[in-house]
Amino acid sequence: MIKTGTRLQSQVCETQVIVITSSDSLDDLRAGGVAMIPLDGEKSVGATLDPNLAEGAVMGKRYVDDSGAEVLVTKAGVGTLSVGTTPLELKAAKPLPASD
Questions:
Q1: Cα gap 42→4, rounded to integer Å
Q2: How far, CA to CA in Å, does 4 sit from each of 10, 24, 58, 93?
Q3: What are the structural domain ranges in the chain?
Q4: Of 51, 59, 65, 56, nearest to 18 (Cα)?
Q5: pLDDT by residue (tens digit) across 1-13?
Q6: For 53-78, how does the pLDDT look when each residue is reduced to its tens digit (9 = 90+)?
Q7: Which residues is 35 bridged to in the sheet?
Q8: Distance of CA 9 to the CA centre of its chain
Q9: How does strand 16-21 pair with strand 7-9?
Q10: Verdict on whether the full-model pTM lies above 0.70
Q11: Partner residues linked to 10 by β-bridges
């Protein structure tokens, strides 16, 4: 299982993330359809971006999955973040309390 605080990078685009809340599902975390690797890891030669998973990741936004895993994008890229082939969802902002 990937630990909270782990920094990962895409092998097919510029996307980088940091794990905020870990879960077993993140063992299959991908960007652009290709497995993400540690920030200091060696990128695979010949890895290509899946055109079906090329909607991008927005810097500064948090993405979550159904198991409660959460990642924060620290560098934007064109690859869609996913667990397997299931794209992660953009985490909705919490509404602020009313100030009457």
A1: 21
A2: 18, 11, 20, 21
A3: 7-87
A4: 59
A5: 899 999 999 999 9
A6: 999 999 999 999 999 999 999 999 99
A7: 30
A8: 9
A9: antiparallel
A10: yes
A11: none
